[in-house]
Amino acid sequence: MAKPKFETSLKKLEEIVRRLEDESASLEDSLRDFEEGVRLSKECLKRLDEAQQRVEILLKDSEGVLHREPFTVEDQESEPDE
User: Fold this and answer.
1) What is the pTM of this model?
2) Can you name the residues that pair with 59 across neighbouring β-strands?
3) Is 64 left (phi over 0), alpha (psi -120 to 50) or beta?
Protein backbone atom coordinates (compact mmCIF):
# COMPACT_ATOMS: atom_id res chain seq x y z
CA MET A 1 0.00 0.00 0.00
CA ALA A 2 1.48 3.35 -1.06
CA LYS A 3 1.89 6.12 1.48
CA PRO A 4 -0.44 9.07 1.04
CA LYS A 5 1.12 12.34 -0.05
CA PHE A 6 2.43 14.67 2.65
CA GLU A 7 -0.22 17.24 1.80
CA THR A 8 -3.00 14.63 2.11
CA SER A 9 -1.73 13.53 5.52
CA LEU A 10 -1.43 17.11 6.70
CA LYS A 11 -4.98 17.91 5.57
CA LYS A 12 -6.31 14.86 7.44
CA LEU A 13 -4.39 15.96 10.52
CA GLU A 14 -5.94 19.44 10.30
CA GLU A 15 -9.41 17.87 10.04
CA ILE A 16 -8.73 15.78 13.15
CA VAL A 17 -7.63 18.85 15.08
CA ARG A 18 -10.87 20.64 14.12
CA ARG A 19 -12.95 17.65 15.26
CA LEU A 20 -11.07 17.46 18.57
CA GLU A 21 -11.57 21.19 19.15
CA ASP A 22 -15.31 20.80 18.54
CA GLU A 23 -15.76 19.00 21.90
CA SER A 24 -19.08 17.45 20.83
CA ALA A 25 -17.61 14.05 19.89
CA SER A 26 -17.80 11.07 22.21
CA LEU A 27 -14.78 10.04 24.25
CA GLU A 28 -14.26 6.96 22.07
CA ASP A 29 -14.36 9.02 18.87
CA SER A 30 -11.98 11.59 20.35
CA LEU A 31 -9.52 8.89 21.42
CA ARG A 32 -9.65 7.29 17.98
CA ASP A 33 -9.08 10.68 16.34
CA PHE A 34 -6.25 11.45 18.75
CA GLU A 35 -4.50 8.13 17.98
CA GLU A 36 -4.87 8.75 14.23
CA GLY A 37 -3.57 12.31 14.70
CA VAL A 38 -0.47 11.08 16.53
CA ARG A 39 0.20 8.55 13.74
CA LEU A 40 -0.24 11.20 11.04
CA SER A 41 1.93 13.68 12.94
CA LYS A 42 4.76 11.15 13.19
CA GLU A 43 4.39 10.31 9.49
CA CYS A 44 4.54 13.99 8.50
CA LEU A 45 7.57 14.65 10.71
CA LYS A 46 9.36 11.64 9.22
CA ARG A 47 8.66 12.88 5.70
CA LEU A 48 9.90 16.37 6.55
CA ASP A 49 13.10 14.91 8.00
CA GLU A 50 13.62 12.79 4.87
CA ALA A 51 13.06 15.80 2.62
CA GLN A 52 15.49 17.93 4.63
CA GLN A 53 18.17 15.26 4.28
CA ARG A 54 17.71 15.14 0.49
CA VAL A 55 17.91 18.87 -0.12
CA GLU A 56 21.42 19.80 -1.17
CA ILE A 57 23.11 22.67 -2.91
CA LEU A 58 25.84 22.15 -5.46
CA LEU A 59 28.65 24.67 -5.07
CA LYS A 60 31.87 25.31 -6.94
CA ASP A 61 34.96 25.78 -4.88
CA SER A 62 37.78 28.17 -5.81
CA GLU A 63 39.21 25.55 -8.21
CA GLY A 64 35.92 25.06 -10.05
CA VAL A 65 35.20 21.67 -8.50
CA LEU A 66 31.59 21.00 -7.59
CA HIS A 67 30.84 19.69 -4.13
CA ARG A 68 27.66 19.17 -2.15
CA GLU A 69 26.67 20.90 1.05
CA PRO A 70 23.50 20.41 3.05
CA PHE A 71 20.91 23.13 2.61
CA THR A 72 20.05 25.11 5.73
CA VAL A 73 17.57 27.90 6.38
CA GLU A 74 20.49 30.17 7.27
CA ASP A 75 21.91 29.67 3.75
CA GLN A 76 18.68 30.92 2.20
CA GLU A 77 18.33 33.86 4.60
CA SER A 78 21.87 35.05 3.91
CA GLU A 79 21.28 35.24 0.13
CA PRO A 80 21.25 38.85 -1.08
CA ASP A 81 18.02 40.11 -2.61
CA GLU A 82 18.20 40.33 -6.37
Assistant:
1) 0.63
2) 67
3) left
Please tell me the distance from the alpha carbon of residue 23 to that of residue 30, in angstroms, as a whole number.
8
| 24: CB partners within 8 A, 6+ apart | none
Contacts of 75 (CB under 8 A, 6+ apart): 57
pLDDT in tens, 71-82: 666 655 555 444
Spatial CB neighbours of 68, under 8 Å, sequence gap ≥ 6:
56, 57, 58, 59
Q: What is the dihedral of CA 65, 71, 73, 74, to 10 degrees?
A: -30
